[in-house]
Write a structure and sequence with these properties.
Layout lengths: L1 H31 L12 E7 L6 H9 L8 E7 L6 H6 L6 E5 L6 H11 L4 E6 L6 H25 L12 E4 L3
Parallel strand pairs: 1-2, 1-4, 2-3, 4-5
């Protein structure tokens, strides 16, 4: 008798999990539902460019990042220099008037360390990381900008899902979105 009750209860709970709960949620949403809140969410985003001795390509990469279809007041561009010995830092400084920040490491520790230091310096919750690679001109360059813009829009969507909440420790939630572009 007890085994039968346990078996029937277990079967009922499994059926409720797969069919009952979804049906109940659907009915309740129809009875008491409200339309979802929609907003144009465009969070502040940091684009972090890791560079070492990239004097040949860094200006084109920064121009590419500045050309992104994203509000300029919501876009922070940080170039993380891993102790460049060429003119990379000088070229990046020439873009400071356009809002580009240079973060130079004191000791050469590699690309990952440079990116991690730039993340600490960043003032935004959402980060997009990219490397300095030769920028293809014309249509390929526009496609590159479009792909970076798409990733920034996905970060904005993540911000909408995360909201302005805090995690369990009371700190603001953050997202890290590395990329190879």
């Amino acid at each position: 008798m007890t085994a039968e009750v346990v078996f029937i209860t277990s079967c009922a709970l499994i059926a409720y999990t797969y069919a009952g709960y979804p049906a109940l949620a659907y009915v309740l949403s129809r009875l008491f539902g409200r339309p979802p809140r929609r907003a144009n969410i465009t969070p502040k985003v940091s684009v972090i460019i890791a560079a070492r001795n990239e004097e040949r390509d860094i200006a084109a990469k920064i121009e590419n990042a500045l050309a992104l279809d994203y509000p300029k007041d919501k876009l922070e561009i940080i170039v993380a220099s891993d102790c460049s010995t060429d003119r990379t830092d000088e070229i990046v400084r020439s873009f400071e008037s356009r809002g580009v920040l240079l973060h130079r490491q004191r000791v050469r520790l590699g690309k990952t360390a440079a990116q991690n230091q730039a993340v600490r310096v960043s003032s935004t919750r959402f980060k997009e990381s990219c490397a300095v690679s030769p920028i293809l001109r014309s249509a390929a360059s526009r496609a590159n900008c479009s792909m970076q813009t798409l990733r920034l829009q996905r970060l904005a969507a993540a911000a909408a899902l995360i909201g302005a909440g805090k995690n369990r420790s009371g700190r603001a939630k953050a997202a890290w979105a590395p990329s190879s572009v």
